[in-house]
Specification:
Blueprint lengths: L5 E5 L12 H13 L4 E4 L11 H15 L5 E4 L5 H10 L8 E5 L8 H14 L4 E5 L1 H4 L5 H10 L3 E6 L4 H10 L5 E4 L5 H6 L4 E4 L6 H12 L3 H18 L6 H9 L17 H12 L1
């Protein structure tokens, strides 16, 4: 199995009642997902609320994750932004880069670059990155879509661009990438709810939010799909459908933190403004679905 196929879990960052990083809960979460059978850990992704963290907090979070992991699984570090020069600078200066095995870098947001601009951004990253690069296309958050042609161009021209996390939800685009991507390139779903159908057409796994709370179930489904055991995988996919929908109903990571509190994995579901906790009704529904 390729190193970053299977299930990567985009770890949340637990905060305590005062809004500070809860190191104890973060260690518990890392242990919980490793015990659940995930294949690698993703630190400082969107789900981590990295956009609200200071540089010191990011360093703390990565080092707590790496310390608890203790070399058991690969670690992917989220390093991205909409200022190419700043991202490139961070790749050579962030003190926690030594903890990672690859980086996950998002398409630049807000600027709304052209396809040529997106290519130029990742070209500079690829030429300077000290670790392999996973592209991250999430137009619902960035405001711009990285077209299949741009993904394929980057994949063909740079051997250290090893994968794409594709979260456009566009099956035609996914098909175009999978059909023509280099042999060793990895296609990862960026949407939990459509992971199985994307794997059925040639995807190799997912960087998952839901695996924070259902690591064993999600890992089982993905590993079955990798073995082309689609009947059993489909049963698990359908069983998780309602909870997957509920977890994203009032935003991410609000739903997943509520679920982690309900399961007793983390102590507090606090989020940082501008994010807000889920409603009481949704929390009760998530707890009920988890109990089933």
């Amino acid at each position: 199995m390729k190193k970053f196929s299977g299930v990567g879990v985009a770890l949340v960052t637990p905060f305590d009642e005062q809004g500070q990083v809860d190191e104890v809960s973060l260690r518990e979460l890392v242990e919980y997902v490793i015990d659940g059978g995930v294949d690698y850990l993703v630190a400082l992704g969107t789900t981590s609320e990295a956009a609200t963290m200071t540089a010191e907090e990011k360093d703390l979070v990565v080092r707590v994750i790496a310390g608890q992991n203790d070399g058991r699984l690969p670690i992917v570090l989220g390093v991205g932004g909409n200022d190419t020069a700043q991202v490139v600078h961070e790749l050579s200066s962030l003190p926690y880069m030594e903890c990672g095995d690859a980086i996950l870098s998002v398409v630049p947001y807000y600027n709304k670059p052209s396809q040529e601009g997106i290519y130029a951004h990742f070209k500079e990253i690829a030429e300077r990155a000290p670790l392999p690069v996973i592209l991250y296309n999430v137009p619902g958050r960035t405001g711009v879509n990285m077209a299949a042609g741009t993904t394929l161009r980057l994949a063909r021209e740079y051997e250290n661009i090893i994968a794409v996390k594709e979260a456009s939800g566009n099956f035609e685009q996914a098909t175009a990438i999978i059909k023509d991507m280099p042999e060793n390139f990895i296609f990862l779903s960026g949407d939990d709810g459509i992971t199985l159908p994307l794997m059925a057409i040639g995807g190799s796994g997912v960087i998952s939010v839901v695996a924070n709370v259902l690591p064993a179930e999600f890992s089982s489904m993905v590993h079955l799909a990798l073995e082309e055991e689609y009947g059993e995988a489909r049963t698990t996919h359908l069983r998780m459908a309602d909870i997957c929908k509920a977890l994203f109903e009032e935003g991410n990571p609000a739903g997943i933190k509520a679920a982690l509190v309900a399961k007793g994995v983390i102590a507090c579901g606090r989020l940082r403004v501008p994010l807000a906790p889920v409603s009481d009704n949704l929390y009760a529904r998530i707890a009920s679905l988890l109990a089933k």
